[in-house]
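Ticket opened by: R.M.
Priority: normal
Category: complex prediction / small molecule

The reporter submitted a protein together with pyridoxal-5'-phosphate and asked that the result be attached to this ticket for the collaborator who will pick it up next week. Submitted input follows.
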Amino acid sequence: MQINITSSKESRLPSIDFNNIPFGKIFTDHMFVVDYEGGQWISPRIEPYGPIEISPALSAIHYGQSLFEGMKAHKNSDGSAYLFRPLDNWNRMNKSAERMCMPALPQDIFMEGLQTLVNMDKEWIPTHEGSALYVRPFMFATDDCVGVRPSDNYKFMIICCPANPFYNKALKVLAEEHFVRAVEGGVGFAKAAGNYGASMLPTKLAHDKGFDQILWLDGREKKYLEESGTMNLFFVADGKLYTPALAGTILDGYTRASIIQLAKDNGIEVVEARISIDDLINWSSSGKLTEGFGTGTAATIAYFSSLTYKDKEYSLLPIEQCQISTKLAKELNDIKSFKAEDKHGWMWKI
Ligand SMILES: *Cc1c(COP(=O)(O)O)cnc(C)c1O
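Result attached by the on-call engineer:
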């Protein structure tokens, strides 16, 4: 595959204050672009990061054939760049694409585009503790047509932004009794753009009531735990690690999969099951429920300080006492920062 490269004339890197980067607003010098036309992916290229021209009738805007991925790149002390589980992102993107009636992207275009781009903008990978380059692959429909039908044309692009460590304040989560994130047969397992648009009002209302994040319950009975915000969910009860089983409505997160693996490596019993909010409350009342957290690429682990259901707040242990979750978070962060051996081959050297 031939990637056509147009380098930026001058790097914006010297103007960036790495100690003060707002998440998601500062982009590296380049972006990767490939077009889908006439049933084929054509003209893969790297261009200077910048605006793209689109039609007002762009079908992605009108009907939401649009999806994304998220991963992180890290740099070790000898200056080599690594990606965390990139093939899993490629795989998941194509599952999302299938559900959204969008074309699959071949592995070589995804991986070569990704590696060439991250390598070109390697100097943008922050190296201080907990920082990384956030990499955002995305695909959207580009037909110039307001007819409701699958688009014939698409764009796949990758953009990157340096990201500082996520501030890890423990979150107050609200079990949502009215709004739902996903239903069986829907698009909950896909990283489809519309899922995030749909979650903004419920999240804003929860913020207005003083909560940091929503704990989503299932769409049918509003009884079973699904996710928290855009993170997968974990609870520790009786020393066991519980997480909702993937059942089509939950996003298959790779931080989730990594935490499950590390827990098993540590001999911690992991239970992937249908877990009801009543189970949680019973565990809390009997003193079994100790820790709770969400997982995702952005934060790795976000600890919960309490969960609220039907106006009653149930506390969880403060972070300093969360032995299981802090241990798993440290092990995962140590692998990503080259301090621990990467036994499972999650770090992909560019
Ligand atoms: C991206 C995402 C996650 C986390 O997935 P990771 O692969 O761990 O980053 C969890 N839930 C939702 C809804 C997401 O969009």
